[in-house]
């Protein structure tokens, strides 16, 4: 018997999965057959819309057929799985972007690959038997086939909860979480298909829809948001341990069964993707970074062994739940370079990168690894992996589609702009990633625009670690057109890019962000020093504050106390991830901007004064900005 049936019927193209005994699990051939049908019907005027359904009562599609991936992977053949995922993800993107309506009818189990098939189309229908979930963390994988796209868009912290626990959604939950659109009882589906075939009018779906059943998850949303709102896996585990309630205990029990690395990576993926720049392609490209590496460096093969091969339900995960290295997460999500999942024939650019210092060099290297042609220049003669060096800045920018600068201050930016703008080709984009004063950013943008160029000021947050691992956040100012040209490069170098407004808005956002960071780090260090003097154990303080109203990035993700919380510069003798003198520079920029705008910023002003004292008259220069803690430890109130 065939695995699926593809035919036209009246005005519809009709695809039916026909493997009910295998819960309609997707094979590679099924994926390719679906794609071929979509390609054939795209420009067929007789086909107004597509319907995708499945035989059997138990499942629309319970996932991908992973037994062959295990067999080939354990034999050392990693290419089979990579090809499967690569081609399946391209098919998922086509479903999401298809120019004609597609109706999916999802009864019973819809998991993993089933979500990729039915969860991205224009009209997603569920019924009373529908049970939708993303169970990948239980087998050492991550939510894929675009599942991370839906999870990142789910209300509140429901995406984290669903991605890590694999909780099953009934029809009401699926609609609430964004995995489905309409509730129609299954006995009404045959008549609906007949009507669609006769009329070709997809409006019949909404007309047939009935009020969705209640969503238990919607009622639990406040509790889910509170328990799953942490920055990292350890934060979630801490919150669940501390809560003590029945819901938290059940969720914790599930998490303790799942692969720790998979959950940590899933959490990081959702956090990186969440935001206004999210697209299905961005999600799939990030998922493929993990898929490409998961058999070789993750727990996927062990998870399949324990679940479906030996069925002992006793996987030996690579890491303990409380000690997943941040580097392991970053490595799974680093850009793939030439192996990157691509949706177009050729998306490469000619890029010039001016300023190959501690930040610029790894950023340029990541662009080169992603397949772009990068020519670099730095007055110190430094180089970057995969980057061709030029003798001068004007030589580097000649013929470049995009010129990126990463420079120390506004005066140097203005001087470099004087050299490179006349040498750039018409229509090219100048992207300045330096942190400089707003006036310099706007002056350079005006100069570029007067020369027939596009300009973006896009300072970054994330430090050298973010530059190396491709996890920076870009705060961009400039025209929408210029931002859209630069955005694919931001996606390679970072985890998020926010278009903040016109020229100078990126610098304004960075200055405001780092003023908050400087102030909160001082407050965090003061609190630890006070706790010491009050006889409060630092770990106990962290356990309370990290899950209470004192929660902050400086406490939970970058704790200044050695041996407490995730690994940070404090655990490495305060060697800088973000140097104190750089924080001082940013705080001074914030106060310069505040004076120019006549803004009252007393906390920012005091933070600037404290960091000035720390850097210029104490021992803070060359130390991480969190080294304020040992400073406060030594000082009394006088």
UniProtKB/TrEMBL annotation:
Annotated Pfam families: ECH_2, NAD_binding_11, NAD_binding_2
Keyword Oxidoreductase included in the entry's annotation: yes
Residue stretches making up the Enoyl-CoA hydratase/isomerase domain: 12-332
Top-rank EC class of the record's enzyme: oxidoreductase
Transmembrane segments: none
PROSITE patterns, A to Z: 3_HYDROXYISOBUT_DH
Domain 6-phosphogluconate dehydrogenase NADP-binding: 350-501
Keyword Oxidoreductase annotated: yes
Family: Belongs to the HIBADH-related family.
Name the record gives this protein: 3-hydroxyisobutyrate dehydrogenase
Organism from which the protein derives: Thalassobius vesicularis
Taxonomic classification: Bacteria, Pseudomonadati, Pseudomonadota, Alphaproteobacteria, Rhodobacterales
Gene that this sequence comes from: mmsB
